[in-house]
Amino acid sequence: MVETLRRNKYALIAVAVVLLLLGAWELIARIIGSSVVLPTFSSVATEFFGLFTTGTFYASLFSTLLRCLIGYCIGFVLGVALGISAGKSKGFSAAMRPINAVMRATPVAALVLLLYIWVGSNVLPSVIGIMLVFPIIYEHIKTATENIDPALCDVLDEMGSGFFHSARTVYLPLTLPHALSSVSATFGMNLKAVITAEVLASSVPSIGRQIYFANQNLVYDVSRLFAWVVVAVLLSVLFETILRSIITKLTNRISWLGIR
After folding, report:
1. Quick one: pLDDT at residue 260?
2. pTM (2 decimals)?
Protein backbone atom coordinates (compact mmCIF):
# COMPACT_ATOMS: atom_id res chain seq x y z
CA MET A 1 0.00 0.00 0.00
CA VAL A 2 2.76 2.43 1.01
CA GLU A 3 4.76 1.52 -2.09
CA THR A 4 1.74 2.13 -4.32
CA LEU A 5 1.20 5.56 -2.76
CA ARG A 6 4.88 6.38 -3.22
CA ARG A 7 4.80 5.44 -6.90
CA ASN A 8 1.69 7.53 -7.52
CA LYS A 9 2.46 10.44 -5.22
CA TYR A 10 2.61 13.04 -8.00
CA ALA A 11 -0.72 11.90 -9.43
CA LEU A 12 -2.21 12.07 -5.92
CA ILE A 13 -0.85 15.59 -5.47
CA ALA A 14 -2.50 16.64 -8.75
CA VAL A 15 -5.82 15.08 -7.70
CA ALA A 16 -5.61 16.77 -4.30
CA VAL A 17 -5.04 20.18 -5.92
CA VAL A 18 -8.00 19.65 -8.27
CA LEU A 19 -10.26 18.71 -5.37
CA LEU A 20 -9.03 21.73 -3.39
CA LEU A 21 -9.78 24.08 -6.30
CA LEU A 22 -13.25 22.58 -6.82
CA GLY A 23 -13.97 22.92 -3.11
CA ALA A 24 -12.82 26.56 -3.16
CA TRP A 25 -15.04 27.16 -6.20
CA GLU A 26 -18.09 25.75 -4.41
CA LEU A 27 -17.36 27.73 -1.24
CA ILE A 28 -16.78 31.06 -3.01
CA ALA A 29 -19.89 30.61 -5.16
CA ARG A 30 -22.04 29.98 -2.08
CA ILE A 31 -20.55 33.01 -0.32
CA ILE A 32 -21.29 35.23 -3.35
CA GLY A 33 -24.78 33.77 -3.57
CA SER A 34 -25.39 34.82 -7.18
CA SER A 35 -25.43 32.22 -9.96
CA VAL A 36 -25.11 34.99 -12.56
CA VAL A 37 -21.73 36.04 -11.11
CA LEU A 38 -20.46 32.55 -10.27
CA PRO A 39 -22.60 29.39 -10.29
CA THR A 40 -21.81 26.67 -7.80
CA PHE A 41 -19.74 23.70 -8.89
CA SER A 42 -22.63 21.37 -8.04
CA SER A 43 -25.02 23.22 -10.39
CA VAL A 44 -22.42 23.22 -13.18
CA ALA A 45 -21.78 19.51 -12.62
CA THR A 46 -25.52 18.81 -12.87
CA GLU A 47 -25.72 20.80 -16.10
CA PHE A 48 -22.57 19.11 -17.41
CA PHE A 49 -23.88 15.58 -16.97
CA GLY A 50 -27.23 16.68 -18.34
CA LEU A 51 -25.52 17.55 -21.64
CA PHE A 52 -24.84 13.86 -22.26
CA THR A 53 -28.56 13.17 -22.51
CA THR A 54 -29.08 15.52 -25.47
CA GLY A 55 -28.45 14.87 -29.16
CA THR A 56 -27.18 18.44 -29.55
CA PHE A 57 -24.19 17.61 -27.36
CA TYR A 58 -22.97 14.74 -29.54
CA ALA A 59 -23.59 16.62 -32.80
CA SER A 60 -21.67 19.64 -31.49
CA LEU A 61 -18.84 17.49 -30.13
CA PHE A 62 -18.46 15.52 -33.36
CA SER A 63 -18.54 18.61 -35.58
CA THR A 64 -15.97 20.49 -33.50
CA LEU A 65 -13.61 17.51 -33.36
CA LEU A 66 -13.99 16.94 -37.11
CA ARG A 67 -13.13 20.57 -37.89
CA CYS A 68 -10.23 20.39 -35.47
CA LEU A 69 -8.82 17.17 -36.97
CA ILE A 70 -9.21 18.37 -40.57
CA GLY A 71 -7.45 21.65 -39.86
CA TYR A 72 -4.72 19.99 -37.82
CA CYS A 73 -3.95 17.25 -40.34
CA ILE A 74 -3.77 19.67 -43.27
CA GLY A 75 -1.64 22.13 -41.30
CA PHE A 76 0.69 19.36 -40.11
CA VAL A 77 1.20 17.82 -43.57
CA LEU A 78 1.80 21.24 -45.18
CA GLY A 79 4.17 22.20 -42.36
CA VAL A 80 6.23 19.03 -42.82
CA ALA A 81 6.34 19.21 -46.63
CA LEU A 82 7.12 22.92 -46.90
CA GLY A 83 9.42 22.81 -43.86
CA ILE A 84 11.63 20.20 -45.54
CA SER A 85 11.60 22.20 -48.77
CA ALA A 86 12.57 25.40 -46.94
CA GLY A 87 15.29 23.60 -45.01
CA LYS A 88 16.80 22.37 -48.28
CA SER A 89 16.43 25.64 -50.23
CA LYS A 90 17.40 29.05 -48.86
CA GLY A 91 15.50 30.71 -51.69
CA PHE A 92 12.28 28.91 -50.81
CA SER A 93 12.87 29.68 -47.13
CA ALA A 94 13.19 33.39 -47.94
CA ALA A 95 9.98 33.29 -49.98
CA MET A 96 8.09 31.62 -47.11
CA ARG A 97 9.39 33.99 -44.41
CA PRO A 98 6.85 36.83 -44.88
CA ILE A 99 3.96 34.39 -45.35
CA ASN A 100 4.85 32.55 -42.17
CA ALA A 101 5.34 35.81 -40.26
CA VAL A 102 1.88 37.07 -41.25
CA MET A 103 0.23 33.79 -40.22
CA ARG A 104 1.96 33.83 -36.84
CA ALA A 105 1.26 37.47 -36.08
CA THR A 106 -2.37 37.91 -37.16
CA PRO A 107 -4.83 37.54 -34.22
CA VAL A 108 -7.45 34.79 -34.45
CA ALA A 109 -10.32 37.30 -34.13
CA ALA A 110 -8.97 39.31 -37.07
CA LEU A 111 -8.59 36.16 -39.18
CA VAL A 112 -12.18 35.17 -38.44
CA LEU A 113 -13.48 38.54 -39.59
CA LEU A 114 -11.33 38.46 -42.73
CA LEU A 115 -12.11 34.88 -43.75
CA TYR A 116 -15.77 34.64 -42.72
CA ILE A 117 -17.10 35.99 -46.03
CA TRP A 118 -14.72 33.91 -48.15
CA VAL A 119 -15.10 30.42 -46.67
CA GLY A 120 -18.29 30.49 -44.57
CA SER A 121 -18.90 29.77 -40.90
CA ASN A 122 -18.60 25.97 -41.06
CA VAL A 123 -15.29 25.81 -42.99
CA LEU A 124 -13.76 28.80 -41.21
CA PRO A 125 -12.72 27.01 -37.96
CA SER A 126 -10.70 24.41 -39.91
CA VAL A 127 -8.94 27.18 -41.85
CA ILE A 128 -8.10 28.89 -38.56
CA GLY A 129 -6.69 25.58 -37.31
CA ILE A 130 -4.48 25.26 -40.40
CA MET A 131 -3.17 28.81 -39.99
CA LEU A 132 -2.36 28.16 -36.32
CA VAL A 133 -0.71 24.76 -36.71
CA PHE A 134 1.20 25.29 -39.95
CA PRO A 135 3.71 27.97 -38.78
CA ILE A 136 4.70 25.98 -35.69
CA ILE A 137 5.23 22.66 -37.49
CA TYR A 138 6.90 24.44 -40.42
CA GLU A 139 9.49 26.11 -38.18
CA HIS A 140 10.24 22.85 -36.32
CA ILE A 141 10.76 20.91 -39.54
CA LYS A 142 12.74 23.67 -41.30
CA THR A 143 15.13 24.03 -38.37
CA ALA A 144 15.58 20.26 -38.08
CA THR A 145 16.25 19.96 -41.84
CA GLU A 146 18.83 22.76 -41.73
CA ASN A 147 20.64 20.92 -38.92
CA ILE A 148 21.04 17.67 -40.89
CA ASP A 149 24.69 16.83 -41.56
CA PRO A 150 25.62 18.37 -44.95
CA ALA A 151 27.79 15.34 -45.69
CA LEU A 152 24.66 13.19 -45.67
CA CYS A 153 22.99 15.53 -48.16
CA ASP A 154 26.08 15.33 -50.38
CA VAL A 155 25.90 11.54 -50.36
CA LEU A 156 22.25 11.68 -51.43
CA ASP A 157 23.13 14.06 -54.28
CA GLU A 158 25.95 11.80 -55.44
CA MET A 159 23.60 8.83 -55.44
CA GLY A 160 21.11 10.80 -57.54
CA SER A 161 18.41 10.35 -54.93
CA GLY A 162 15.17 12.14 -55.84
CA PHE A 163 13.33 14.48 -53.49
CA PHE A 164 10.63 11.99 -52.45
CA HIS A 165 13.09 9.15 -51.91
CA SER A 166 15.38 11.42 -49.87
CA ALA A 167 12.42 12.72 -47.88
CA ARG A 168 11.14 9.22 -47.08
CA THR A 169 14.46 7.62 -46.19
CA VAL A 170 16.38 10.50 -44.59
CA TYR A 171 14.58 13.81 -44.04
CA LEU A 172 11.37 12.47 -42.51
CA PRO A 173 13.08 10.08 -40.04
CA LEU A 174 15.48 12.81 -38.92
CA THR A 175 13.01 15.70 -38.71
CA LEU A 176 9.62 14.17 -37.90
CA PRO A 177 10.42 13.52 -34.21
CA HIS A 178 10.91 17.29 -33.77
CA ALA A 179 7.38 17.92 -35.07
CA LEU A 180 5.85 14.99 -33.20
CA SER A 181 7.24 16.32 -29.92
CA SER A 182 4.96 19.35 -30.25
CA VAL A 183 1.83 17.54 -31.45
CA SER A 184 0.11 17.21 -28.07
CA ALA A 185 0.61 20.88 -27.19
CA THR A 186 -0.27 22.24 -30.63
CA PHE A 187 -3.39 20.06 -30.83
CA GLY A 188 -4.69 21.66 -27.64
CA MET A 189 -3.92 25.12 -29.03
CA ASN A 190 -5.64 24.16 -32.27
CA LEU A 191 -8.75 22.96 -30.45
CA LYS A 192 -9.01 26.23 -28.51
CA ALA A 193 -8.54 28.28 -31.69
CA VAL A 194 -11.20 26.25 -33.52
CA ILE A 195 -13.71 26.72 -30.68
CA THR A 196 -12.92 30.44 -30.57
CA ALA A 197 -13.55 30.65 -34.32
CA GLU A 198 -16.83 28.74 -33.87
CA VAL A 199 -17.95 31.23 -31.22
CA LEU A 200 -17.12 34.24 -33.39
CA ALA A 201 -18.53 32.72 -36.61
CA SER A 202 -21.47 31.01 -34.87
CA SER A 203 -20.76 27.71 -36.66
CA VAL A 204 -23.60 25.17 -36.46
CA PRO A 205 -23.42 22.62 -34.96
CA SER A 206 -20.42 23.19 -32.72
CA ILE A 207 -19.22 23.57 -29.15
CA GLY A 208 -18.46 27.20 -29.93
CA ARG A 209 -22.06 27.79 -31.02
CA GLN A 210 -23.34 26.31 -27.76
CA ILE A 211 -21.01 28.57 -25.75
CA TYR A 212 -22.19 31.57 -27.77
CA PHE A 213 -25.87 30.64 -27.32
CA ALA A 214 -25.47 30.14 -23.57
CA ASN A 215 -23.71 33.50 -23.33
CA GLN A 216 -26.62 35.23 -25.11
CA ASN A 217 -28.97 33.80 -22.45
CA LEU A 218 -26.56 34.44 -19.59
CA VAL A 219 -29.19 35.25 -16.98
CA TYR A 220 -30.79 31.84 -17.38
CA ASP A 221 -28.00 29.63 -18.77
CA VAL A 222 -24.85 30.69 -16.90
CA SER A 223 -24.44 27.16 -15.50
CA ARG A 224 -24.76 25.77 -19.02
CA LEU A 225 -22.12 28.24 -20.22
CA PHE A 226 -19.73 26.96 -17.56
CA ALA A 227 -20.65 23.36 -18.43
CA TRP A 228 -19.72 23.85 -22.09
CA VAL A 229 -16.47 25.54 -21.08
CA VAL A 230 -15.71 22.51 -18.91
CA VAL A 231 -16.40 20.27 -21.93
CA ALA A 232 -13.89 22.27 -23.99
CA VAL A 233 -11.25 22.13 -21.24
CA LEU A 234 -11.68 18.40 -20.59
CA LEU A 235 -11.59 17.69 -24.32
CA SER A 236 -8.30 19.55 -24.67
CA VAL A 237 -6.74 17.82 -21.66
CA LEU A 238 -7.97 14.39 -22.78
CA PHE A 239 -6.57 14.68 -26.29
CA GLU A 240 -3.27 16.15 -25.10
CA THR A 241 -2.85 13.20 -22.72
CA ILE A 242 -3.78 10.60 -25.34
CA LEU A 243 -1.60 12.18 -28.02
CA ARG A 244 1.37 12.49 -25.64
CA SER A 245 1.20 8.76 -24.99
CA ILE A 246 0.79 7.89 -28.69
CA ILE A 247 3.61 10.22 -29.79
CA THR A 248 6.00 8.77 -27.23
CA LYS A 249 5.40 5.26 -28.59
CA LEU A 250 5.45 6.43 -32.20
CA THR A 251 8.73 8.29 -31.78
CA ASN A 252 10.32 5.15 -30.35
CA ARG A 253 9.19 3.13 -33.37
CA ILE A 254 9.84 5.68 -36.08
CA SER A 255 12.94 3.77 -37.17
CA TRP A 256 10.80 2.03 -39.82
CA LEU A 257 11.09 5.25 -41.79
CA GLY A 258 14.82 5.43 -41.31
CA ILE A 259 17.85 4.62 -43.38
CA ARG A 260 18.09 0.91 -44.10
Report:
1. 40
2. 0.84
